[in-house]
Design a protein that fits this description.
Elements (H helix, E strand, L loop, with lengths): L5 E7 L3 H12 L6 E7 L6 H5 L8 E5 L6 H11 L4 E4 L4 E2 L5 H18 L5 E4 L2 E4 L3 H10 L9 E3 L9 E4 L1 H6 L10 H11 L3 E4 L5 E4 L4 H21 L13 H23 L10 H21 L5
């Protein structure tokens, strides 16, 4: 059996129509020297049942968890079962409309290697652009809040934040040195892992040119719930990422959480606007929605701080 150039790992939980669409998109790629590894994180309807009978031009592996473990553990399962030396992460609710995406992505991965060498990095993580797909104002707020790490207009090295684990590639051997994703985090595992990379000299590089889409949340309640949940995990992420340049800005207890509520929610909103403003000046009109998403995040964080635990 020929070894694939890359293994595309897709963690999925309860997204039957999304996973079918994604696999159909990948089957139309002009370059197909990859395998797809789906990790079914105990979906109500097993992914195997959803894709049964479908035929694809590349090898498809489906591994199912007996319990829901979260995206980090699902990614780890995918890595352990992958055969390629290059690991590519794609979200299950992503869209790949360009039939030349994989060709472009692998070309840019090599380009990122040259950028890393010039920067003195022997190991690197490569991320290309993600565009949000939305149908409502709430969906556009989610796009701005979710993908500010993918909104740069030119190639760059990222040194102060994470890159999303969607449309992202990394050499398999990096996991041997950095370690796998945290199994303690159901959300935000990519944030913690990327800061671990930065702490150990692994370069994070962004190069636009191989975009994929992501179907973002289109209702205010879904947006609120998502950022509240991320906020719940943020104190643990900060404990695990002591090298984060922004760690000291965040509260450590109930009193500081109360005092910092307004300043931090405003600063987080301004930071997202700053990230997007060059690429999409219309972001300023969505600042109130971004602020509400950051309020949800902050309240989730305060919940964990006051409970002194992670709510699973």
């Amino acid at each position: 059996m020929t070894r694939p150039t890359a293994s595309i790992i897709v963690p999925v939980y309860n997204r039957p129509s999304d996973i079918q669409r994604l696999l159909q998109r990948l089957s139309r790629q002009a370059r197909q020297d990859f395998e797809v590894v789906i990790v079914d994180d105990c979906s109500d309807t097993p992914v195997q049942d959803v894709v049964e009978g479908d035929d694809y031009p590349w090898e498809l592996s489906i591994i199912r968890h007996d319990t829901n473990c979260g995206a980090g553990t699902a990614r780890n399962t995918g890595i352990r079962n992958a055969r390629g030396e290059i690991i590519v992460f794609i979200d299950s609710d992503a869209d790949v409309p360009d039939a030349d995406w994989f060709e472009k992505f692998m070309s840019l991965y090599l380009e990122a290697g040259k950028m890393a060498a010039c920067a003195g990095c022997s190991r690197y993580v490569f991320h290309s652009d993600v565009f949000g797909i939305h149908a409502t104002i709430a969906g556009r707020v989610d796009t701005y809040s979710n993908w500010y790490g993918s909104c740069m207009v030119s190639s760059c090295r990222i040194t102060d934040r994470h890159v999303p684990m969607n449309n992202t590639a990394v050499a398999r051997d990096i996991f041997e040195g950095i370690g796998m994703f945290s199994s303690d985090l159901h959300l935000g595992e990519d944030i913690e892992w990327c800061f671990r990379c930065l702490d150990q000299g692994v370069g994070l590089f962004f190069i636009p040119g191989a975009p994929i889409g992501h179907f973002d949340r289109n209702t205010p309640s879904d947006v609120w719930r998502h950022y509240y949940r991320i906020g719940e995990y943020s104190p643990v992420i900060r404990r695990l990422t002591r090298q984060s340049p922004y760690r000291l800005l965040f509260p450590q207890g109930g009193l500081s959480a109360f005092l910092l509520f307004f300043p931090l929610t405003v600063l987080m909103t301004l930071y997202i606007v700053k990230c997007w403003i060059r690429r999409d000046p219309f972001v300023v009109f969505f600042a109130p929605g971004l602020y509400m998403a950051n309020v949800a995040y902050y309240l989730g964080m305060c919940k964990t701080i006051t409970d002194n635990k992670i709510n699973r």
